[in-house]
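Hi Y.,

Following your request, here is the sequence exactly as I used it, all 168 residues.
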Amino acid sequence: MTTDPKLMSFEELQKKIATLKENRGVDLSTEEDLSIAVMNLISLEEHFFFSGAKTGKDEYYDMLHEVREMRKVLLARMIDKTEAESWCISKHLLGTTMRLMEVGTKLQGDGKTEDAKQMFTFAYKIFNLFFGLRLKIISAPHIKNVLENEKPMTYDDIMAKLVDCCKE
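Below is the corresponding structure, written out as tokens. Let me know if you'd prefer a different format.
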């Protein structure tokens, strides 16, 4: 059993994973695709902002608003707005994942393979934190604890067991 009543024990975590897999209440393949779509919308919001700021053209801000509204609808399909800061944390976890993937890709293109691998590893860990939050395996206040403490099973391990995009 865990010492913090808000944290799941290892046994509770294993039971939750088994239940999620059995009930198929969440189509994780679709959820993964949707999360990547949200990542790209976040990236588009950033690009429309910078394009508007650099050119002074309001139409970029109008497009930013349109894309933001789409992103809000899609993110709401995955994350409840009612639970503490989970909504905002989720958005930032996905945005961070996308940016780390892009930095890794650029480093790889520059021949900096080890640096690229590190960025990809960080991106995957952050992405798995998003799904841990999404599936309520962890709660927003405990993300820091997850990053700092070793667990018998890491969130990467959990997600590898749950998410298999090749299973339709």
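The chain has one domain: 27-162.

Thanks again,
Q.
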